[in-house]
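Entries read chain and fold; for instance:
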Amino acid sequence: MESLARSARKITWTLFAAQSLGSASFISAATLSSILGARLGGSAAYAGFPSAVNLLGGALAAPLWSLLMDRIGRRNGLALGLLIGVIGSGVAFAAIVGGGMLAFLAGMGLMGLANAALGLGRFAAAEVHPPHQRGRAISYVVIGGTVGAIAGPLLVAPSGALGLRAGFDALAGPYAVGLIMLLLAAGVIFVWLRPDPREIGRQVAKDFPGSRAISADARPMRVIVRQPAAQVAMLAMIFGQMIMVAIMVITALHMRSHDHSLGHVSAVISAHTVGMFAFSIISGALADRWGRGPTILLGSGMLVVACWSATLSPDLVPLALSLFLLGLGWNLCFVGGSALLADQLSPAERARAQGVNDLLVGLASALASLLSGMVYAAIGFPAMALTAGGLAVLLLAAVALWVGRKKHLPSPSAP
């Protein structure tokens, strides 16, 4: 048992390191995607296209990555995914320098494939821990994004200046730096993610016979999604992602239309991504101690407040506060939802169910990204934020109804 615990800690910290490097690359790319989409596409209506392609690529790849990792292992699958991200960053860099919209979309799509693989690392962390520790295990991996949350946007200006000195477009610099970070992340996974989390997860399932997670039979997906708890878990992640993406993607373009500098844009996105990742340990502890449902409920309420407050002012500080709350609300929904879903699954069900969940999350967020630019061009940022707020109210009501119907939440190891 002690050996398993030691291996679980090593695996979790390795995933944390890879998440830090990978998220720094992906977040720096996301910071500029709407600006580049509008510029390369020739219209603000195209602002959401790069992010939509990125998210769509990740959505379609998520179930395939899950199945592939079951066959070749988590370590090989994660390393392969990050190497695809290296290629995607290179393609995007070349497209920006050459002024090609289609090539840029292709690069963003490949980066989406990589991000989908990296995103499954949270479930790898969950499977190597016993049920009562899964919320915190997921949070440790998600908090790896804190490094990316801070470093990613803040790298935009200096890497842009570096690109200018090298004779390239300033907006291409972050993609070159991101390529290097993804290469480092792949190396971290390949060298240190040992033993493979898949093998540790199987042993953990045997050592905790009180958990539903040791069930030998894999239920059909239609049976799993009929469970109210699974429905709430997936709804929290899907709606939380849609709401967050719709506002985050268009914020940079909204700020540039109000004459904010790239430094201001980076500061607001940094505040947002700090909210997304920095408090993950607290979110995980809340999910384990307070309950999955109340954690998701709190996150849903924060999303409502964030969407409303984003309409109040285009100034730097109010936007930064709104985007911070948006990120924190997403984090609570994401960590709570991930832990709640993991509670419902046996080892034989994990790959398929988690892949389907991430597929739905990715498709929903890709749709939100695609529509955000069009809605922004048609009715402006405040109306778009209020529309996202309407979705947040629906999520809040659905989760409140589920929590209210239960006298108490099941323990993490309960059915």
